[in-house]
């Protein structure tokens, strides 16, 4: 009788445990194979926790700004340097909008009357301090992760993957990478600051002599003399060069440009827990059969223990649709070819690169209001719809012409359309195929992307065992 009761009790307990586990597995975003392969990591992820917290994440320490950086900060907010007298660096790189535009315009307005439209979306200035010089060669070694970091957490999930984007490029192992602006045409923040300052449709500051004269009348001109000596005032080119260098130092030294203060950074360190939706989004983000986002937007800590920037800094031709809101696009013969021009001249002959633009980092992406190089989309929902339906239902993405012809990749000339990535998931699907992501998948990816916004301060439970 006792044995019988013990047997019944044992079976009951086993049944309850089995029911609990099966229910947990059923509700989780992980399949049975992942539970069997990495049960601990999978279980922790289902609880929204990082199974292997990074204990020494190399986040730049906050420090007092040098006099050089403080000078750069003053110029960053000085609208008098522009031709209109009303536009500063901060006008298009608003700190309240993660140093990006605070409006939903596809391209920003500038010039003397602030009515001249640019031709490309203005990117954020955040997280550029680690940007490497433009090059064409083997994959950047920073793209390789340290397998002791949160990649260990990914041991419970399938991994994003990046295949040969373009046969010609992959065969030679030549990958464009690095640089600043959408086409990587400059390498330093000092050079980057020079571009908008003198661009006639941006700040339109005029000549070096004009800028030097304005600096000579600025309230902070004494800072230049203190830093560089009185001789700097007699050399306009030197004065402007030092001014641009000071702007660069401001962006490097001020932690607001790279605070690594997101919920994701807290999660990496075991100091935050994802919601169920954020966890599912994290899994879809890394799943090559679904989002495959992490193939280009790397989400793992580097070998040196540096937080991820969510980009491989490489270039892709994605074939986003033409944006009719850009005045330059009214000319049907005008095309923005990225690496091939019109803003850089040195790669025009390298036609295999035409249509390629740099993969932007995704930190603070949920705060942005214009996406891709031409700002054609204004919400993350639209962006994910593009990835989901570009190939499976192109009529939802591109104009449909006479006779039902879909004008696919219509923002590129015919000869450049062969460069568009049709190999990497989810772009390897055909018209009529099921899309890679469900509506819930896309909703969850957006929830995950919101964890990349800086300024996470809410107390959260530690992600311990």
TrEMBL record:
It is found in: Cell envelope. It is an enzyme of class 1 (oxidoreductase). The chain crosses the membrane at residues 6-26. It holds the Pfam family CCP_MauG. GO terms for cellular component: cell envelope. Keywords: Heme, Iron, Membrane, Metal-binding, Oxidoreductase, Signal, Transmembrane, Transmembrane helix. PROSITE patterns: CYTC. Residues 276-453 form the Cytochrome c domain. Gene3D superfamilies: Cytochrome c-like domain (1.10.760.10). Its EC number is 1.-.-.-. Its main location: other. GO terms for molecular function: cytochrome-c peroxidase activity; electron transfer activity; heme binding; metal ion binding. This is Methylamine utilization protein MauG.
